[in-house]
Amino acid sequence: MTAADYLNRQRLTLQLAAADVPKAEALLTLAGADTIALRDAGDAPVLEPEPAEAPLWPSVTLEALFARDVELAPLCKMLADEFRGSAPALDLLEDSAWRAGLEQAVKPRAIGGRLWLAPAESREAPAGRACVHLHMGLAFGTGEHATTASCLEWLERHVASGTTMLDYGCGSGVLALAALALGARHAYAVDNDGQALTATRANAALNGATRRLFVGTPDELPVVAVDVLAANILAGTLVELAPMLARRVVPGGMIVLAGILEAQAARVAAAYAPLFDDLEQHVQDGWVRIAARRKAG
User: Fold this and answer.
1) How far, in whole angstroms, is CA 136 from its chain's centroid?
2) Distances (CA, A) of 218 to 40, 99, 166, 213
3) Beta bridge partners of residue 215, listed in sequence order
4) Could you point out which of 20, 61, 139, 213 has its C-alpha 20 to 30 Å from the C-alpha of 174?
């Protein structure tokens, strides 16, 4: 699937009680949804819970993307009947309109003292800053959300010339590309979402980083351990993957974790404490970033 294919999609939006989410997800999956995402009906950021993981909010807005040729009228009627009082809304994600809206919303900006992040079409590139340009909207990770911004700020301070870096759950690839721009020798960007890999490859080409960036699924990742690992994913997944992610960091290397709500931070920290030293937590807009150093030996 190309980026244009992804953006030319039908979007079905449904607001419902958290208890109804599993059934709604099952119906949408059977109907052929390409992706399903959840967010707080109060407009908190989108999350994608693991299967059977309960949403964190009492009222949920569910968004599902479908191919343009899928007939959704029967599905909308069935959902309205099944979840009374919750009429689905349909709209089209047009490529040009979606991009234009993002380009207007996402402005070039400085990250710390060394990094500059900008949309692909931006001509701004301040002297003395490492610049990363992105095709906005192809995958999660424009640098605007608190979790991504927090990771970028951390990388700006900790990535040194000649290091290696792994971006686990890469989304748009922004963290890996930022590390390369800041002087990393080589980076690895992995994700289970094919659209994220498409976006990362496009952004790597845009930044002239194709030869220094591995892009693939976690199963395709070479057997490597890196100096810096960043994982901006779900808290439950971070806990589950702690032993594996630790093996991917060299002794004395650094890890930075994000995608963690304040209520989840203690559980994530507990999973990494046996494997890492010097755990530090930083809170931004209700989201927690955890950074730590891999234990020696």
Assistant:
1) 13
2) 29, 29, 11, 14
3) 189
4) 61
Question: How far is CA 264 from each of CA 131, 234, 269, 286, 292, rounded to the nearest angstrom?
Answer: 33, 10, 9, 11, 17
Highest mean predicted confidence (pLDDT) among 7-21, 89-103, 197-211, 215-229: 215-229
Distance of alpha carbon 231 from its chain centroid, rounded? 9
- The first and second tokens of residue 37, run together, are 């995402």
Which pair of structure tokens corresponds to residue 147?
Answer: 């979790």
Check residue 64 and report its DSSP letter: E
User: What's 139-294's CATH class?
Assistant: alpha beta
pTM of the model: 0.70
pLDDT digits (tens, 9 = 90+) for 241-283: 999 999 999 999 999 999 888 889 999 999 999 999 999 999 9
CA distance 272 to 241: 10
Domain boundaries defined on the chain: 3-93, 139-294
Which helix (H) or strand (E) segment holds residue 279: the answer is: strand 276-284
CA distance 84 to 156: 49
Q: Which pair of tokens denotes residue 216?
A: 């693939």
Q: How far apart are the first and last CA of the chain?
A: 43
Q: Which DSSP state fits 211?
A: G
Two structure tokens written together for 278: 């010097």
CATH number of 3-93: 3.30.70.120
* Angstrom distance (rounded) from CA 171 to CA 230: 12
